[in-house]
Amino acid sequence: MTATINILGLSGSLRQHSAHTAILNTVAEQLSGQVRLTLHGLERIPPYNEDNDGVHAPQAVSDLRAAVAAADGVLIGSPEYNHGMSGVLKNALDWLSRPHGKSALTGRPVLGFTASPAFTGGVRAHQQLNETLWAVKAALVVYPQIVIGDVHSKIEHGRLADGAAQTFLLDGIGALIELINKQEKVDSNSPRR
């Protein structure tokens, strides 16, 4: 029997009707077989303050770090605010970048996507997200940027309804799963959870 692949979903938007959370929920419903996507909220993560890190790290931060460490891969969705990723997501990634040199994201397979009401789909936020993930040495999936433009017209009843966007995103998740499986073969001492 094949072990379950656990993917952690992080949405960079806290809005109740967030397009990014809707997209992550759509993905979770579309996955089948031995692949599971679980969302982890960022609403309780406080602003990063190094004085409050280490042994003083807030429980919400410790829980986030543990969730990333337990995941086989991470799927991150970010809105674009003022030509960059959301502050909520950047803050969470700053917490996840610590302790220095021992980030739970280091070496972890990660796929990012952005969505925006603009036709550009958040491409600048996507680039900024990638730069931050490169800085912490995450294992970024080699795949074209997943940017979903005019996103409000593509969400119906709280789910991503656009077939082309769904297919492209799910193909990206296929590439994420391939990277996870490749890492499993290389590191046979790290059994899947």
From TrEMBL:
<feature type="domain" description="NADPH-dependent FMN reductase-like">
    <location>
        <begin position="6"/>
        <end position="150"/>
    </location>
</feature>
<dbReference type="Pfam" id="PF03358">
    <property type="entry name" value="FMN_red"/>
</dbReference>
<keyword id="KW-0285">Flavoprotein</keyword>
<dbReference type="GO" id="GO:0016655">
    <property type="term" value="F:oxidoreductase activity, acting on NAD(P)H, quinone or similar compound as acceptor"/>
</dbReference>
<dbReference type="InterPro" id="IPR029039">
    <property type="entry name" value="Flavoprotein-like_sf"/>
</dbReference>
<keyword id="KW-0288">FMN</keyword>
<dbReference type="InterPro" id="IPR005025">
    <property type="entry name" value="FMN_Rdtase-like_dom"/>
</dbReference>
<dbReference type="GO" id="GO:0005829">
    <property type="term" value="C:cytosol"/>
</dbReference>
<dbReference type="InterPro" id="IPR050712">
    <property type="entry name" value="NAD(P)H-dep_reductase"/>
</dbReference>
<protein>
    <submittedName>
        <fullName>NAD(P)H-dependent oxidoreductase</fullName>
    </submittedName>
</protein>
<dbReference type="GO" id="GO:0010181">
    <property type="term" value="F:FMN binding"/>
</dbReference>
